[in-house]
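Known limitations

Files may contain more than one protein. Parsers should not assume a single record per file. Below, a two-record file is shown to illustrate correct handling: read the sequence, read the token line, then continue until end of file.
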Amino acid sequence: MHKLKYIGAFVVKAVSFSLIFWGLWLFILKPITSPAQNTNTSSQDAQSKALMETYEEQAMRTDELLNSSDAQQKRMELLLTIQEEQARRYNLILDKWEKQAGIKK
């Protein structure tokens, strides 16, 4: 019976120590360290904002390049059409000259 009393007292002391320790940790020590976490959070927010600005700049540059590429592709299509027409006309002229010269293909 005497040992049971010591075991019970030990358990009560352990539980009370744990409650006091975690109570101090959560209500006193945790709020003291939170401003450091707030500065860490604000630096993370600044990094996140900087990354977002970089992303937006990259997106704008990509849009500009796509627009430029589309314009260049339209110019190339126009040039290709003109070259095809010139090649057709050149072939017609060559055919007339060959007929005049009497050259057979």
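...continuing to the second record:
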Amino acid sequence: MYSNGVQVSFAPGWSKVDASTKWELRIKEDGGRVETVNGRLTYIAPAEDAATRHVVAIVNGDTGILLLSEKDVSIDVLVEMAQSMDLSRTPR
């Protein structure tokens, strides 16, 4: 799904992914930080340069949720979108 400069993707098959370990490795490789959003560990990485995009990623049960935007859309917009998602419909 793509709207107003933000891309949102949902990917099945994440049930065996440990978010804590996954995001720790991602931070070591690509930078960023982890915050709790809607009760789930969330990887947040602002774009570093023109070649990268802002990233917010959440593991929600069996689903990986990825929010991406170009640098001209604030990372705060992605975080607010993640906070507004109703994640209760999918098991943790």
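Parsers that stop after the first record will miss the second one. For reference, the second record is described as follows. The first strand starts at residue 2 and ends at 3.
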